[in-house]
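re the bet — no i am not wrong, look at it urself. input seq straight from the record:
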Amino acid sequence: MKTVATVLAAVSLCFAGAAAAEPVKQRVVVLTDIENEPDDSESMVRLLLYSSEIDIEAIVATTSVHMKNRVAPETLRAIITAYGQVQPNLLQHEAGFPTAKALQDRVTQGVPLYGMTGVGKGKDSPGSDRIITLLDTADDRPLWVSVWGGANTLAQALYRIRETRSPAEVKRLVAKLRVYTISDQDDSGIWMRKTFPDLFYIVSPGGYGNATWSGIMHVEPGFDNTEISNAWLAANIQQGHGPLGAMYPDVAYGMEGDTPSFLALIPNGLSVPEHPEWGGWGGRYELYVPKVADTDPKGFNGGMAIEQEPRPIWSNAVDTYTPFAANAFGRAMRPAEKSATGYKTTVWRWRPDFQNDFAARMDWTIKSYAEANHPPVVALGQPDRITVKSGEKFTLSAAGSRDPDGDNLSYLWFHYPEGGSFKTPIAIAGAENIYAVPVVAPTVTKTETAHFIVKVTDKGSPALTRYARVIVTITPQ
């Protein structure tokens, strides 16, 4: 006979939901003008710490407007060698970290020519050949190209495909590509956007100061920017963190300007790579035709010409963000008194979380499992897609969330207005920091969507965060 406790436990499990299904690893090719300045090396150190969760299929040394006539694969190899020294320790914490040899085999290079001078007949390179081979691979997953410098190696691959394949085959292969470029650092980007109008392309054209990606290093007045300080980097990444941390150079012009190009590929429950408009660690982007006048055309971009975009691209979007602050007494969290609005806000609003995540993974390179912290596992007590009517009260729950280290968990539910079609903020009906919260659906005159995020953070050191997103469809009465 079942005891009351057994029955209650079974009921609890029915309503607790389950952790999300294992996310699909994203395939990625990196194009990097490494040795132009230190930030590519910084981003490479971080990327390797996520090589268990992202399939790095090629790392291509390229040129850019800042380094026009040479490539530096030797620096990539040196960083990977350091990674190889810590890879066995990383495997104590998470399966799937590739060997250094496997990564060394994926290092290649483009031609040491600038921009479109490196695109055309006879301009093939090991890098462009590698991209074509990866596109031809029988793999249903999209191929993300993360462009940290110039994009001409990708442009050459597309040029070659156009010259040697049927129009139907060109269309099929282009449809497999997802491109994120850190602004335009040669003139091949606009050529690709003109020549291949169906190419999925995320970019902030124009001056770097107006770029979404610069939110990773942006110092926002009136907010705590500690986690991008040189002292934080020294203590948490560079010093006392083994051979890979020792490869992370000091900041020269800006910290990790290239990292936003792959942050959205890290499975964290928040970022959905196929939906840049939903927002995540890599920022938020909308599909439209930006005007040249809105791209900071007089700002620094290395001397790149800025042309009018010929068709919609994924580009800068605006978030308004009000952080929550810790309370010394009573309710653990309260909305801060200051808000921020802008393109860069779409990245830096998540920065404490992804910087702590980076620091924890750097700890993994030198610490045992018992000594280090690991992220919580978020589960939902309802589906991640629900439909409600105007005025209806409903509950959002993260019941069943857990922490692998046994740490206590904090919860924070909030409406992300910019992610859905309903842009007016929807308040949580009570304390936001409970695992299950009530919400009253607003009155709508047409069907709308509202995105709600639960942020689950452990109390380990450094504190680590994972998320779940619930998309609520609201229909009129």
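see?? Residues 26-316 form a domain with the Inosine-uridine Nucleoside N-ribohydrolase; Chain A fold (CATH 3.90.245.10). told u. also The chain has 13 helices and 18 strands. so pay up
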